[in-house]
Amino acid sequence: MVRCLTLSVQRLYTSVCGRHHVYFIEDDGIYRMDKRQSEPEQVLDLGQVSGEEEKTGLRCQWSIQRIRLSPQEVYLAATLKTTHREELRCVVVRLGKRNPPHVIFTLDKVFSFEWATDEVLFYSTLEDLRCSRVFRLDLTSSGSRITSVYEENQLDVFVEVALSRDRQILTINCSSRTSSEVLLIDTTTPHLEPFLVQPRQLDLLYHVEHWRKWLIILANTGPGQEYQVVQVPLSEPSMVSWEPLFSPSSGTVVKDMDVIGDHCVLVARTPASELVLIVIPVIQPKEAYTVQLPSWACAIEIKRPGLADQRSVFEFLISSPVHPPVPYCLYPEDGLFLLGTEDGPSPENHSNYITTRLEACSQDGTLVPVTLFHAVPVECLKQAPLLVHVYGAYGRDVNMEFCPEKRLLLEQGWALAYSHIRGGGERGLSWQRQARVDGKQRGVEDLQACLHHLFSLGVSSPSLTALTASSAGAVPVGALCNVHPHTMQAVTLQAPFLDVLGTMEDPSLPLTLEDREEWGDPLGNPKHRHSIASYCPFHNITPQRYPSMLLTAYSNDTRVPLAGVLKYTEQIKKAIITHLAINSKSECKPAPNIVLNIQPGANHLGPEDFELMLEEEALKLAFLYTELGLDPPRPPRKRKRSQGYLVKHLPLQYQ
């Protein structure tokens, strides 16, 4: 069932509705079907793309990342990724009715891309993890032409292109960690120069949507520099003309915005940490109303409308780490909220799993949210193994999308906790600001408070607790291991960022300059250097008993270089050996295991190949069961066959 669910979710998220066909991804390429076809037609064969030999001499195995159709379904553009490099390749396929679909153009190092017309494709490029240039590809009967449209000179600014929901405006979004700048292109006149909405200014973040001849803007101009909705005429878009449209109530945090017909729809998180939708009639904003989502909902994925979709409907998937995605439809005009399963079986019963939202009091009195998933009441969790998930950086929420292996753990009697520590975005922009640069230690204190609160409630114990994190989430975990190693038994880290000081002192690394707004500048600011040195996981290793660790790294990862993970692993092994030598008579427990799993490739977020992903997850589970002294997992209980196909039979429309 786990594989069935995983593949089904993947299909949902990678299918696109055109005017005449539905396009979907299989292992070997892109296919399409219309109502008259009994068999799908292959549009792109990855075997042909994979047959091209790279300069490295490696034969590439490509996976498809994203699909975009031109307005009248004349062309399809798709980005492809290989494990050997970070950059994507974009292929343009002509979708002729008389001739079979065929690739007519290939672009390398493409990051984002959108069609303005059937002949004009805009795209941004990614080089050395910097996305700073936008180009226009013109396809005509006489040939093709590439023109530079925009180039960003600031090293810490990331550039991408996007299309408004009504497809009338293309935006060039230029964002750093602390500021935004947006340029607009009218898709009816794509060859004119882009025009600026509002010049960049420090601590101003904004995102733009189009409504009639107005712009609907989500900007952090609300109370406490949090997000609110403003509107402005398209003809005079600068900040002096912005008029407030809607501000959420205190403690409610806006996570996303879309414009559906004459309504602005916000995805928001309440003070109780639950997801809701806020619907704002643009013409009568005082009549805004809130739509409650199921209490277990932790993640939301908004459907990109199809080319022929003229309905004023907001379609989306909701999920949690242990609840597979479920489709819903909201009709803002009528306030109608429907479970979108007309073409599939009824959703399975979610009552078997309990979602408990807690708050832990951190050292400075701040209440830190914790989401706990369990299958039995909290008072029965004393002997349960506990897996705690952490991130807390860049203003991003900890990942809470559906994950089949998390559900498997829950079925095996585990409790799963998600610590929403400061540095992430769970409680708004101020939540990140409190744990940025000099405030990073707050994230470590928050994590310690979350563990203490769980234990005090009778949830598990340190000897049955493991922490898991990836990338920058390894910083608070590694820092806590240095100061309170006895609060956990084991740790799993994927692509872990562990040498903060060494990385931020090396400006030759691709993300160092961009990340100064997050971690600080130890070369130019002694205060920043002192702050980083106080918590950096690598620079604070000391001889003591550490928890067992599984560190998974990728040989060509340019975001977190392998050298830093190797240094950390070697240093922590030395610290453990020194501790055991000094305390040989008093130490009666076996030495903790430090396991370094080095995988080939440049996938910072882990393998995309299904079999490799299974192998990595199997190793992680084996490590956790071994280090926590647990019996091997029981075979999963049998389910009715229909439940295994819950997601598989839903309409393939999400992208």
Keywords:
single chain, 655 residues, alpha+beta, eight-stranded mixed sheet, four-stranded antiparallel sheet, 12 helices, 36 strands, 18% helix, disordered C terminus
Major sheet: 8 strands, mixed
Q: Please count the beta strands (DSSP E, at least 2 residues each).
A: 36
Structural class: alpha+beta
Q: Low-confidence segments, ≥5 residues, pLDDT <50?
A: 1-13, 341-346, 639-655
The share of residues in extended strands comes to 25-35%
Widest beta sheet: strand line-up: 29-30-32-31-33-34-35-36
Level of helix content? 10-25%
What is the 3D form? globular
Give the N-to-C terminal Cα separation: 23 Å
- How would you state the average pLDDT, rounded? 89
Radius of gyration: 25 Å
Number of helices, where a helix is a run of at least 4 consecutive DSSP H or I residues: 12
Structure at a glance:
Helix content is 18%, strand content 34%. Helix 5 crosses helix 6 (474-483).
Explained architecture:
The chain is of the alpha+beta class and 655 residues long. The chain is built from twelve helices and 36 strands. It has an eight-stranded mixed beta sheet with strand order 29-30-32-31-33-34-35-36, with helices on both faces. Strands 1-2-3-4 form a four-stranded antiparallel beta sheet. Strands 5-6-7-8 form a four-stranded antiparallel beta sheet. Strand 15 (180-186) and strand 16 form a beta hairpin. The chain is globular. The two termini are 23 Å apart. Mean pLDDT is 89; it is low at 1-13, 341-346 and 639-655.
